[in-house]
Amino acid sequence: MTARVSFADRAKRTGAAVAWIVAFGVVGGASGWALSRLGPEPSPAWSLAWSSLSGAVGFGLATWLVGGVLDRRSWAYLGWRPGTGVPAGLLGGVVLGVVMAAGAAGLAVLVGGATVTNTGDWSSWGRATLPLGAGFLLAALTEEFAFRGYPLRRLAAAVGAGPATTLGAIGFGLAHLGNPSATAFSTVNVALAGVWLACAFFSPGGMPLAWGAHFGWNATLALGFEAPVSGYLFPVPAVAYRAGAHGWIDGGAFGPEGGIVTTLVMLAGTAALVAWSRTSRTTEPAG
Fold it and tell me: Who's near 130: CB < 8 A, 6+ residues apart?
């Protein structure tokens, strides 16, 4: 009898969580779409930043309205009052993402045969990377709002952090399946990135750490190496990236995220975050 009641209670809580998450997605998606239709058409250089701004505002609005006002969840619950503080969490995440992306790209060169060439055109690098950097920062925030934040925390409250992380990571991987040059391997790696970012979200760094890590990863691949990011190439001056002959190692046209170099880096980064979170819990004062 107890097991039956427990199962029914969990099913009810899971159904309620799914309903709230669907409402969140509808509000966020509709708001972002509506905002993207406002104002003049941006220049090609700023198109990523404008579309990402629309998404970030849309899902930020959904977080406030659905998560905060209607579901009455606090900003601490949503990961925005981390133990590290917001600035430290964000900066630490950027550093983590930069180090991991540089590690993946470095392995692609050292092991996979990819090449990174210095073209010498540094005079226009800053002008080209400013709008792209803003776009990556806002795109990372959009995806963290949409895939971590309220949806992940709400699902975790119903089924537990582990299953919620797994389900969220699968959704994150499948959401990138339609990207250019996507493969089964790249989808698995993006799902692993979803696990890594969920671990960042559940860590003492909270949402700022996940946001910073996501931004640091994408910006380093694109702006530091000119490598494709999830199948998309963002040409920048000064550097030129060319994949090697073995796509299973360096990811080929999808970028390092499609190869085993990212698999190894994601596993290492996730393990480091899990260890940090466990250490932080054991060192917290009692009471």
Answer: none
CB 212 within 8 A of CB 88: no
Q: Are 196 and 172 in contact (CB under 8 A)?
A: no
Contact 67, 21 (CB under 8 A): no
| Rounded Cα–Cα distance for residues 6 and 2 (Å) | 6
**Predicted local distance difference test score (pLDDT) of residue 184:** 95
Contact of 237 with 121, CB cutoff 8 Å:
yes
Cβ contacts of residue 115 below 8 Å, gap of 6+?
Answer: 109, 241, 242, 244
Q: Are 250 and 186 in contact (CB under 8 A)?
A: no
Side chain identity, residue 98: V
CA dihedral 216, 220, 221, 225 (to 10 degrees): 180
Any idea which residue has 């995440």 for tokens?
Answer: 93
**Mean pLDDT, each 10-residue run in order, the chain (287 residues):** 65 92 97 89 89 96 97 94 94 98 96 91 85 96 97 95 96 96 96 98 97 98 96 92 94 96 98 93 49
* DSSP one-letter string for 147-197: HSHHHHHHHHHHH-HHHHHHHHHHHHHHHTTTSTT--HHHHHHHHHHHHHH
Structure token digits, residue 74:
């606090």
CA 187 to chain centre: 14
Q: Spell out the residues 6+ positions from residue 251 whose beta carbon is closer than 8 angstroms to its own.
A: 108, 185, 186, 189, 228, 243, 257, 258, 259, 261, 262
pLDDT of residue 283: 53
Work out whether strand 239-242 and strand 115-118 pair parallel, antiparallel, or are unpaired: antiparallel
Residue with tokens 């579901």: 71
CB atoms within 10 A of CB 232: 14
